[in-house]
Amino acid sequence: MDGDLPYERIIPGDKWLGSLLAGAVGDALGAPVEFLRIEQIRERYGPDGITDYDRAYGGVGQITDDTQMTLFTLEAMIRGHVGRRLGYFDQQPVSVVQHAYQRWFHTQGPEWHRAGGSYAMEAEPDGWLVKERALFSRRAPGGTVMTALKSFAAGAERGSIKHRLNDSKGCGAVMRAAPCALWSEDPLDAFVVAAQAGALTHGHPSGYLSAGALAFLVHRLLDGADLPSALTEARAELVTWDDSAETVEALDKAVKLAESGRPTPEQLADELGGGWVGEEALAIGVCAALVAGDDLRGGLVLAVNHSGDSDSTGSICGNLMGALLGADAIPRTWLDRLELREVMEQLVRDSLVEFSTADSLSVPDWQRRYPAW
Questions:
Q1: In b/e form, how buried is each residue of 261-274, taking b as 16+ CB within 10 angstroms?
Q2: CA distances from 55 to 33, 70, 132 (A)
Q3: Residue 87 and which of 198, 270, 296, 338 are 20 to 30 A apart at CA?
Q4: What would the mean pLDDT of 252-280 be, rounded to a whole number?
Q5: Cβ burial 172-185 (10 Å sphere, 16+ → b, else e)
Q6: β-bridge mates for residue 56, sequence order
Q7: Hey, is 222 helix, strand or coil?
């Protein structure tokens, strides 16, 4: 396998860049109102709610833990692909994803020898992403994620679909899942990888299946499907999984609500929930994207203005709409102020090199930047 790509899929660079950047933009747009009810949002920003960045975490355009973990997921896809291409392993990259999440856990405070668990064989974590000091900032990380990664660091068994660490279906699995769309030419493989990655921290099926569904949807959109068709295909895959009824029902409700036109924040809450759990966050993001059509700005504004987990629903909507419409659909004023935009663009460029060409090993320091584990 040395030197050969595991597959020959050509990833449309503008759409993949759009998916990652628009997800981060939605995250940053929703960050200031994540813990506010819609009445408070309207009181602060007016009847239309929040329609532009506001201050959060000491700046404007700041991302949250959603985008931080998405970046580490993307890094894991690149590193896993390097290892797979070199023949080091030929299975799903769940161990590589776990390693990436322990590196992210290190950015949240613990020293590497305490954060890395079985991966902390060296004095410092490897790769380039974890050296970005701007990532060493706590942005309201989810309690379930932190507990799971702390337990792994202390020697606990890795979470999986068969070995469920907990019964949490929080949205902390789905909000980071979009990069799993890159793993394979087969969207079903992307679903499986995202579900496995979700189960590292979230043991409830609605937590990890919503992650699988998002990766599947992004995969199909990158390959040129429209969103309604991608949803039909994702639903057909979901119903084959045990305990998927809750996630299927949430997506069905999202489609039905979108068919009635632009919902109010109250309708989003009444019909789809607050987005604090996986299937609800996915449903809100899907509904907003369906309603918005080719209006990415309008979709993100709809996705974040409700009494719930606004940054996560904005991120999911952005992942979908960016994959559908491409980076040029993102308002320039949002891109220009987006925290860590250069890091995201570098990761996208590198992922396109690794996944779309056979030349990555000719790039200087490639395996130092992306070790194959």
A1: eebebeebbebbbb
A2: 10, 22, 22
A3: 198
A4: 98
A5: bbbbbbbbbbbbbe
A6: 59
A7: helix
Residue with tokens 């990436």, as numbered in its chain = 100
| Beta strands 59-60; 55-56: pairing state | antiparallel
How far apart, in whole angstroms, are the C-alpha atoms of residue 269 and residue 184? 35
Cα separation, 163 vs 140, whole angstroms? 27
Radius of gyration of the chain (CA): 19
Tokens of 156: 């606990």
First to last CA, the chain: 16
In sequence order, which ranges of 240-330 are alpha helices (DSSP H)? 245-259, 265-272, 278-292, 296-304, 310-325
Cα gap 213→210, rounded to integer Å: 5
Model pLDDT for residues 86-144, shown as the tens digit of each residue = 888 767 799 999 999 999 999 999 999 999 999 999 899 999 999 999 999 999 999 99
What tokens appear for 105 in the block?
A: 């856990």
